[in-house]
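Hey team,

Filing this mostly as a record. A colleague (T.K.) asked me to run one chain through the structure pipeline before their review meeting, and I want the input and output archived in the tracker in case anyone asks later how it was produced. No errors, nothing strange. Just documentation.

Input sequence:
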Amino acid sequence: MKKYILTLLLFFSGSFVIAQQALLEKVISVDFRNITMYDALMQIEARAGFYFSYDNQFIKNQKKISFAVSDKPVRQILDMIFDNEYQYLVQNNKVVIRKRELPYIVVEGRLFDATDQAPVAYASVYIPELQIGTMSDEQGQFSLRMPQSANMQLTINRISYYDTILPIDSKNNKALNVPLVPRIMEESEVRMVYVQKHWLARRLIGTRQKLSSVNLKNYFYRQKFQLGLLPGIATKNVLKGQQENNLSFNVLGGYAAQVDALEIGGLFNIVQKHVRSLQIGGLANIVGGSVSGVQIGGLYNYAGDTVSGIQIGGLANADKSAVSGVQIAGWYNETQAFTGLQIAGIANNAHSVKKGMQLSGLVNRTSVFQKGLQLSGLVNVTITMTQGTQVAGLVNRAKKINGFQLGVVNLADTLRGIAIGPINYHRNGKHALSVSAQENGQVNLSYKSGNRALYNILQVGWVQAGDPGGYYLFGYGLGSEWRLKRKIKMAAELVSLFYTTAKEFNTDYDNVCFQPLLVYQASPRLQLFTGPRLQYQLTGNNEGRNLYTGFRRNMITLNENSRKPLSLGWTIGMNLF
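Output structure:
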């Protein structure tokens, strides 16, 4: 019974295979004169009564062919179309066309130094035409699986040795013993691939990948697409770092020569040369050359050459050449030359800014800022600002600036423009200690700093009014000075003052004073000034009217019955430089 069942199974399975293969043995006639390969396959489908399945990447649908045959099997016609380079698998009523797998051989051997016979480790052994390769181990041994072909040549590269090229005899596949001749290299020739010098890249790239890139510094090959897991665990193994990709997808991380369209890495992307279009790394992108397009890193982006486009880093962006575009980082941006917009949560650092804007939560720093704006929550620092504006929550610092400063403290060696803030110091500007007296007996001590176009006034003083101990005063104001003649100048000052007794701090009385002054330059370090003074009382109460009258002693009240009187007086004093 068992024999009977087995016989039936063999019979029907054999019949099924024969029936399937019969699809390829069908005899048909076709006319392929000057038509595309796609149309030719469609014609076979119509005549033979089945359909094809194939990968467009390997079969050129639009390739023109031209021949006609009569009464030939389908298999023979397909071989004529594809030059016997493909194989055909029958599945039900479908014929799958696949690239024919060539027979493989394994080339093995040992590399040794021609002078002392010592094994040569970490030499790159590869076939350039096939883009496959390996690397010798510490004993100089290597093993490379390759297609069997009559015209293959093996190339061996190792830094400090001459390049070696060997023909491969596929019929006599013996283990090779290859001597490598040492080469004395100039210091300039012995250099690491630039991207491998980066502090993070050298930790992520394995030793074999690093040495492979050094050995193969002049060898690169193109690939439309690559899929990798980690550097050294990818589609082309040890040659992976020499691959120039259009599309690159790295599950965890990747190392390639360049990217021309899109690269996505789960954790990181490392590229020797340039990146075009879009690069996205879950943690970091590290590029030895230029970036043109968009670079997005969860934590960090780095470019060794120019950046044209946008860099977005969760923590930091760093560029060692020039950026033209936008840098956005959660913490820190750094570049040598910059044109565009820098935004950082903490700090921006650019050696030179041609035209642009720096926005940061804490600090902006640059050496040369030609034109634009620095805006920070704490500090702006530049050496030279040709034309621009500094706005800081605390300090603006520049050696030379032509423009505008706004901050609590504004510092500059040379300012051509205006600075606004409580403390301004400019070496080429105005900084003087001023002593003055008024008609009501008030004496003042002021510090004036800034430049002649606009300077700050920090003022303290004392006046005898009401309280036996008198009243102390403090205030802040702004002033401007301009020249009439060689030693004659005019100044206008507006100061807000608060008054309090020594016994109890109470600023119930305050006023605003405006005083146009005639200034005489007695010597380089001494100015004498005098002029009228308008005093406008801002606050007060009825109980203190007699007291407030004391503050206006010897002044002319212009609106006597007002609760906020406007009075006219005078002042005289001197500025000491």
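Quick notes for T.K.: Confidence is low (pLDDT under 50) at residues 1-20. The chain has four domains: 15-99, 104-180, 194-425, 430-576.
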